[in-house]
Amino acid sequence: MPSHDDTHAPDPEGRGLSRRSLLHGAATAGAAGLAATAMGAGPALAAASPGQGQAHGTPATAEGAQGPIVVHVRDARSGDIEVFHGTSQSRLRDTDLAARIARAVG
Amino acid sequence: MSSHREAPEIAKDPVADSTDVYAFVSPDQPDTVTLIANYIPLQAPAGGPNFYEFGDDVRYEIHVDNDGDGRADISFQFRFTTTVANPNTFLYNTGPIQSLASPNWNRRQSYDVTVQSGFSSRTLGSGLACPPCNIGPLSTPDYPALAAQAVHRLGHGITVFAGQRAEGFYVDLGAIFDLGDLRPFANLHATFGLPGLQAGPGVNATNHLNVHSIAIQLPASQLTRSGHPAIGVWTTASRQRVRLWDADNGQNVDSGPFRQVSRLGNPLVNEVLIPLGQKDRWNSLPPSDDKLFAGYIAHPGLAALLPDLYPGVFPNLAKLVASGQPRADLEAILLTGIPAGLIPGFQNFTGPVQADMLRLNTSVAPTPAAKQSIFGLLGGDAAGFPNGRRVTDDVVAIELRALAGVTYPLIDKTFTPDAAAGKLTDGLTPASVSAPYLGQFPYLGVPYSGFTNPS
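Structure tokens for the assembled complex are given below, as produced in the milestone run.
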């Protein structure tokens, strides 16, 4: 059955990658850049600290990710974080990472 | 409006705002069904230099449910790509556009069509050209010929078109949204103690405006299950969850999975039946979740308003509303389809699941043009709304009449509709649309040109 809201759906056209390649420079701008920087210094999504972080969904590894990665800290206190990349999203709980991001913007 | 600007959030996002859905057995190809989804409402034809276009960042879909569960069994997905030949001019076109390959056309769109069924996905066409917008006699000197070039035959009996069309939905917005003072009956309106109004002819607020249509025509056999000719149809538009304004590059960055932001099946459901605080939520959900909203169909606020707006005109409707009886007639029409046995020789029931879908019994042959009733089933024409919807059907009058109680005898033969209920109209007909409808695909008229509209 076709999916209406496919959380981890691949981009069937592959167009997202080509568009992202056009936007390559955007990775260092705004929240996306901030998030990418913070993540690069912290635990990888799939390897979030035991007891602290648990990733749900397809992780975007630092080596494999192309294009912007957008991080949405839904609640810094509880470490509730959403990470968007391409047409996928992951959700994790990592209070340390959330705190680092919060400090970076504060 | 059918679904133009019908919810607070989607009203701010016209590129993703569905306005009308049509589904009908093609009158000139009766073994096929035509599905049309319109987007980008109320386009002023002269709206350049950046004329209207589909969103490259929007996933447009037309869905078909053929097993009655309110979920898509077949989805046609349309994704658009915009290209600019010369970014160093402000011009949409640098000379006359006389073919879709014209080098004078500076900013153009193409699209891919895929069909999803079950877990399979198949590309039906790639790089299909849209026509330009209708600009004027120098820029688009033979618009019908340009649009004809944008009708693509994809094999397997499938034909598609995506581009600008004349708005075919006729409605007196100015009257309806002025507290329901339908001009033909304005002299009967309560007017809230203000000076009385005079009756007058309707005014088509969408005349001389354009929309963008996504249309597909294909054999009915590709949409139905054997022995089950009734299908449910709706359209959705989805956006990725994240959008960032990349100021350095002057463009948006989209990321994350797609989420539905617009939905449309039956006309006017989200527009006038779903309350303001629920409209955007309704837009985000599939029809299979419509049980959540069934109460608004069973007890429509507009039906309760009519007796107050027109004192003494709808006494039987007032009693029906006061009784608290659920409007099972409206639930059947809008949420399940009409079961067999209510209208002799007709049904478009898809099952007990309550889901707002435009239901089409594909086994009902198209009515010859000379014998059609714009009031569809209410006019004794089983090939019209709410059995699917043709481009000329007067869905405003049909739904007003149904809300006023005309269809309630279907489930309670002791109920007598008020005499006025069967006459309700905003005073418009297909003749209120200046651009003639077409007798062939894509059926909606040639878009109004910017040069001559307004005149």
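The mean pLDDT of chain B is 97. DSSP finds nine helices and twelve strands in chain B. Further analysis is deferred to the final report.
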